[in-house]
Write a structure and sequence with these properties.
With 142 residues, the chain is of the alpha+beta class. It contains 3 helices and 10 strands. It has helices at residues 15-24, 50-57, 76-88, and strands at 7-12, 29-32, 35-40, 43-49, 68-72, 92-99, 105-110, 116-121, 126-127, 133-134. The radius of gyration is 16 Å and the shape is globular.
């Protein structure tokens, strides 16, 4: 198996509401057959009905898998800006931005369906101009 993620699909209670939330964050999506696709760098974020996602995955109910989505940004100020924009769009700020143990700055919000997003500035992770994150060689940091 290649070490790659192509799509992240979020099961949502109301596709129209979820689409509107992400559009208020400035994301631009395409809706096809009650499914919304957002190009997110080298992968896609997909919004789909929780019930349809559960049915497609062959499980009972909406599923209970816990996960956090994360977006690294280029500055502490950008962390604050993104979290403020999310809050204005209807997100719940679950952890206001603050200094981190690794020397960065981060906070969390939950979208209207409860999906957690961490917004972080990490001085040890390089972001390319297009937003691509490069994981550092941790062995070289000893």
């Amino acid at each position: 198996m290649e070490q790659r993620i192509s799509l992240i699909t979020l099961g949502v209670a109301d596709v129209a509401r979820a689409k509107a939330f992400y559009e208020q964050l400035g994301w631009q999506g395409q809706e096809v057959e009650e499914t919304v696709f957002f190009q997110a760098g080298g992968l896609a974020l997909v919004l789909w009905s929780r019930d349809k996602l559960a049915d497609d995955a062959g499980i009972e109910g909406p599923g209970t898998g816990a996960m956090t989505l994360a977006q690294n940004v280029r500055s502490r100020a950008e962390v604050d800006e993104v979290i403020a924009t999310a809050a204005a769009a209807g997100a719940t700020v679950t952890k206001p931005a603050r200094e981190t143990f690794y020397g960065g700055y981060a906070g969390y919000f939950a979208d209207p369906d409860g999906h957690l997003w961490e917004i972080a500035w990490n001085p040890g992770f390089t972001l390319a101009e297009d937003g691509t994150l490069t994981v550092p060689d941790f062995s070289a940091m000893d």
